[in-house]
Design brief:
Layout: E1 5-6, E2 39-42, E3 46-51, H1 69-76, E4 80-82, E5 91-98, H2 100-111, E6 116-124, E7 131-135, E8 138-140, E9 148-150, E10 159-168, E11 173-180, H3 187-194, H4 208-211, E12 219-227, E13 234-238
Parallel strand pairs: 5-12
Antiparallel strand pairs: 1-6, 2-3, 3-5, 4-5, 6-11, 6-12, 7-10, 8-9, 10-11, 12-13
Length: 243
């Protein structure tokens, strides 16, 4: 099964919040220094930019949280508009539209699931099978926000496809490709945790031991494929995985 797809295992419910877990990493927001944009693709309609881990996709509330990928891009491309987001700790490819019409067209592509995405993650434990799907409905864990949780009664449908790339017996980890068929908040992180394989370095969903294995969330938006909103030709971009 290919997991490079448009947005068969047992599951466990969302873990309880551990004592001492930071509910919102913005309290310690320290974005990486701006040393120039890492542009993977650009034309007169759209940009595809590599976002570093630790940088917000869009500005947060207050001057302290203004620094973001969107604000950095807009210093050079004043007409650039955000189309979708990556979690602050996630690195990789993010699409921005150049102008209002491009924003409408690209937003429609995302809403209609015409954008193909592949993420790479390093997860805890060695996965027993080579591929599978996780279909667990998700909703905000309101008292513990920004955490999300599995909720069979009120959650929104969410589907993730995964495929093993390599297993590391020495470090008890598995490298996987992940394809989010839907685009729920924290979907990949919650889904992998819920099947017993939290993403290494995850400050919200991994155990203290798994968090301590890396100084960042080991999740990277590695590949995008979408029809160009103006020409219809496919744009296919791959970003090297930094871990």
């Amino acid at each position: 099964m290919s997991v490079f797809a448009v947005m068969g295992c047992g599951v466990m419910m969302s873990e309880p919040l551990e004592a001492g877990t930071a509910l919102h990493q913005l309290a310690d927001y320290a974005p990486p220094p701006h040393t120039g944009l890492n542009i993977a693709y650009a034309d007169d309609t759209l940009l595809i930019v590599n976002k570093p881990s630790g940088l917000l996709s869009v500005p947060g509330r207050g001057e302290k949280f203004h620094d973001s990928l969107a604000s950095r891009v807009q210093l050079e491309f004043t007409q650039a508009l955000i189309v979708h987001r990556l979690d602050m700790q996630t690195s990789g490819l993010l699409v921005m539209a150049l102008g209002a019409q491009a924003h409408r067209d690209l937003s429609e592509l995302f809403q209609n699931r015409q954008v193909q995405k592949r993420y790479v993650a390093l997860v805890a434990g060695q996965m027993a099978t080579d591929s599978g799907d996780v279909a667990l409905p998700l909703i905000s864990d309101w008292p513990n926000r920004p955490r999300q949780k599995v909720d069979w009664a009120d959650g929104k449908p969410a589907l993730t496809r995964w495929q093993v790339v390599a297993r590391d017996a020495l470090h008890a980890t598995t490298r996987v490709n992940l394809a989010p068929v839907t685009g729920r908040s924290h979907q990949l992180r919650v889904h992998m945790m819920s099947i017993g394989h939290a993403i290494v370095g995850d400050p919200l969903y991994a155990s203290a031991a798994v968090r301590a294995q890396a100084d960042r969330l080991l999740l990277h938006a590695a590949e995008l494929k979408l029809p160009h909103p103006r020409t219809g030709e496919w744009v296919h971009i791959v970003s090297p995985v930094p871990f």
